[in-house]
Amino acid sequence: MSAICERLTCVSKHRAALVGVLFTVFIAILSLVYFRTVTPMTAGVVALTLLGTGLLARLGTGLLAPQTAAEVQKAHLLMLTLENMSQGLCVFDTSQRIIISNERYRAIYSLPEELVKPGTTLHQILDYRIVNGGYRGSPEEYLNSQDATEIQQLGNGRIVEVLRRKIEDGGWLTIHEDITERRQNEGRISFLAHHDPLTGLANREAFIEKIADWCTRYRRWGEEFNVLLLDLDRFKQINDAFGHPAGDVLLTQVADRLRSSVRETDVLARLGGDEFAIIQAAQSNPRDSAQTLANRIIELLDEPFSVDGNDVTVSASIGITLAPEHGVIGDDLLKMADLALHHTKSQGRNGCTFFRSALSEAAVARQLLESELRRAIAQNEFELHYQPFVDAETWAICGAEALVRWRHPQNGLISPDRFIPAAEESGLISQIGEWVLRSACAEAASWPTPTKVAINLSAVQFRNSNLLDVVTHALTESGLPPQRLELEITETALVEYGSECLSMLGQLKSLGISIALDDFGTGYSSLSQLTVFPFDKIKIDKSFTQNMTKRADCAAIISAVLALAQSLNITTTAEGVETKEELRLLTMAGVSIVQGYLIKRAGPASELDFHTLSIRPVAENVA
Known about the structure:
There is one protein chain. The chain is of the alpha/beta class. The chain has three domains: 2-184, PAS domain (Beta-Lactamase, 2-Layer Sandwich), CATH 3.30.450.20; 195-355, Alpha-Beta Plaits (2-Layer Sandwich); 366-622, Alpha-Beta Barrel (TIM Barrel), CATH 3.20.20.450. The chain has 23 helices and 21 strands. The strands form four sheets. Strands 13-14-16-17-18-19-20-21 form an eight-stranded mixed barrel. Strand 4 (159-166) and strand 5 (172-178) form a beta hairpin.
């Protein structure tokens, strides 16, 4: 308040009309700043226009008479307005001496009270600021920049925007605004526009800009480079097991390891999800450089990560393109790297693939196949074949497995191994799977009780929250009792969909449906799967069955699986039984059910004869 009184004493020596004008001016500034109709500095410019009459220059002439009480009150309100502005304001006369200033001006530059009193020279203020590190120029530079706007970086790190305007009759007015927070916010916004907020790496937009820059550099100076696209394998499994926050922790740790694997000249980005990308400045041998980097990344990620006290392992699939060998257009390089990445995943993951033209041809073929699958769904070109399985004790047929076939209008009957992978990749398997469930249940409803129908579920079908509804609708629509439906699931589905898959299986089993673990023994964690869910049946993969007479290890695995299943009271089915010797050994080992060409090849439902078909004669010959 004392500062206000001192300034008020100075102003009170001047004419009432002038005070009225100034009051109007600063109210305009206040309204513009606080109501944000324009930016604060624009408000100052408007005010300076109003002040352009030169009245401020005449404040110090001493020719103005004392004011009335009403005018003193108005001057007091003026000073209150000045003191409550968020900007600093200081007016200098023709002799470069302060006419008036507010508290905000003093606070921005940490000036002592005596340096902001009327009559203080600009040189005194600048000398003080230079000595204390608050101004890095000279008084002459400051004076030469009159009637301008500039940004000053203070010694304490604060950033101030200064607007100076000359007054018509001499002197000038300055407005000072601390824009540190604004600049920091702008910096954060700019950073987030080009960086991933989780890892701090460049984001997709920034990476696309960088790859375009590198393409330009090659065209100008011949600088070769490589593009590596990498994807974490089975990352969803980690999210399901430990939660998304743990997944985020893993992603930041992966980003740190990737940073340690690249050079300063390389570009590292997170494109989204668990997908990362690298632009590598090529050396004398680009292919060797890319291979070395890919191997280093795979090795780095092979070491376990510590996430919330748990050791977590993750691997990466990598696709690589070389510029200019594969082109110098950014979008094309990324597409080709993605094709190479896709091939790596299809070959078992945890490796790298260089792009080659055959991958583009395969992609075109996949696209064509997907289009034909869509047409096949619309035109109902699928049909079901059934392969029976028999009880190893009674030799009677106890059920049949439904196997989908595609009756292509030009290519004839197509086996599932030629189109199911494409259907899974495109998501069309959900529609095909629903048709299989409805059709197989409707067919099996006419079979003699208690014959079962076994239907395979794709891992992709577990992504759909309506799988339970699809199954129950198929049972209700067909009238097939749930006890006569057996759903087969592979280890892949359990590994990739974890808790989601187990929850769904639990709901299906509660309906009375039997759950079988298919292709048992082919996964890396087969035995552990038996501890996470009470399967009704395990199906021994045909690769073991057909090699049991040739390889001792396959025979030993089958023997161990059968012993384990008996101890857990789980039914066993041996797939792919093709010879009498295989049948003899399996029955001696205690298998529950057998299935394969020796019993019957898969065929249309019309070929099934549950009353006469039996392998008893074959079994007796074996015995």
